[in-house]
Write a structure and sequence with these properties.
With 339 residues, the chain is of the alpha/beta class. It has 16 helices and twelve strands. The chain has two domains: 210 residues, 3-Layer(aba) Sandwich (D-Maltodextrin-Binding Protein, domain 2), CATH 3.40.190; 100 residues, 3-Layer(aba) Sandwich (D-Maltodextrin-Binding Protein, domain 2). Helices cover 44% and strands 19% of the residues. A seven-stranded mixed sheet has the order 2-1-3-10-4-11-12, sandwiched between helices. Strands 7-6-8-5-9 form a five-stranded mixed sheet, with helices on both faces. The chain is globular and about 60 Å long. 45% of the residues are buried.
């Protein structure tokens, strides 16, 4: 048997003794792995990430997470790529633009899907009709470029039988969209349902949503958890713990009718309103072939529109390569359905 010195013995027993006086959560925190999560928005559509933190699931699984808030997924992703964050939440659009430009990054989870939480909002007096998508022709539409808002505009114009060139797209930060529309500087904006409701309130009911009847065939937004090469290569334990936290949050949302109470203060919205607004969202952690299908359609749009260069090689294979499903497959194999 190998021998240890008295000092080494006291060091070990002292540590064990100290841990014995800790509460279960404090003992777990002593073994936590630190990580920073760049959040794309405080919109309720990112609820799985918020519940993972507010419900204590990061802590439960041994992750000490620090959140950094951004107004869109593009900026959150850039923080992660610049090593200012370990993970970022984002929609599929910034991911596609980055991949087509040869930037290396990885999707660890697809945790939410929806169509109707991204909308086109307009206001009375601008010549736009709620039930006539073609009335957008010749109009100025505001949205943050390089985000799902820009992609939504293009897909909505296709839905309307129009071309991208039939409107003028104006790059406007999410925080400025409501005021810009109400002032009359633009004719419409493309962003979240939450922002559209704020515009309706601020305009005294003059703002409105354009129809989305049948729009599901044209547009689906995926909410993703991204990370960088370094995390994939060196932090496997952190990846698995983070995936477990998201799975726990997924379960909480499905099983607890009061889950919105956890995040109401975080996003400054009554819990009842969150749950009512979120009914059309698919909160579910998984990887399915439909994600690849949607990424391919989006990449083809970016290339054909001249917004991104065409990569060398098979486009579908390139997009499939961004998905790093191993942690999820190891923990919950039934959540992965990819060829």
């Amino acid at each position: 048997m190998s021998q240890i010195t008295r000092r080494e013995f006291l060091k070990v027993t002292g540590t064990v003794g100290a841990l014995a006086y800790l509460s279960p959560l404090e003992a777990l925190a002593a073994k936590n792995i630190a990580a920073t999560l760049a959040i794309a928005s405080t919109n309720y559509s990112w609820a799985v990430a918020f519940v993972a933190n507010a419900g204590g699931y990061f802590e439960k699984n041994g992750v000490e997470v620090t959140e950094r808030d951004f107004t869109n997924g593009r900026d959150a992703m850039q923080a992660m790529l610049a090593d200012s964050a370990t993970f970022s939440t984002t929609t599929d659009t910034p991911l596609v633009f980055s991949l087509l430009r040869g930037i290396s990054l990885h999707a660890v989870l697809d945790f939410t899907r929806h169509t109707r939480d991204m909308v086109i909002a307009s206001i009375e007096g601008r010549g736009v009709s709620a039930n006539d998508p073609q009335s957008l022709k010749g109009k100025k539409i505001g949205t943050p470029t390089g985000t799902s808002g820009q992609y939504l505009v293009s897909r909505y114009l296709k839905y309307a039988g129009l071309k991208d060139s039939d409107v003028t797209l104006i790059n406007i930060a999410p925080s400025d969209l409501v005021n810009t529309l109400v002032r009359g500087d633009i004719d419409a904006f493309s962003w979240s349902l939450m922002s559209a409701k704020a515009a309706i309130d601020k305009s005294g009911g003059k703002a409105f949503l354009l129809t989305q009847e049948g729009f599901e065939k044209f547009f689906v937004s995926h909410h993703l958890l991204l990370t960088n090469d370094q995390t994939i290569a060196k932090r496997g334990e952190l990846l698995e713990r983070t995936v477990k936290a998201f799975l726990d949050a997924d379960k909480r949302i499905k099983e607890d009718t009061k889950w919105a109470d956890l995040i109401s203060a975080r996003i400054r919205m009554p819990a009842e309103e969150i749950q009512k607004s979120a009914k059309h969202l698919d909160f579910s952690v998984n990887f399915n072939e439909s994600l690849i299908d949607d990424l391919v359609i989006e990449a083809q749009w970016a290339i054909e529109s001249g917004l991104s260069p065409e990569p060398k090689g098979d486009l579908r294979k390139i997009l499939r390569g961004v998905i790093y499903e191993l942690p999820l497959k190891k923990i919950a194999a039934d959540r992965v359905n990819l060829s």
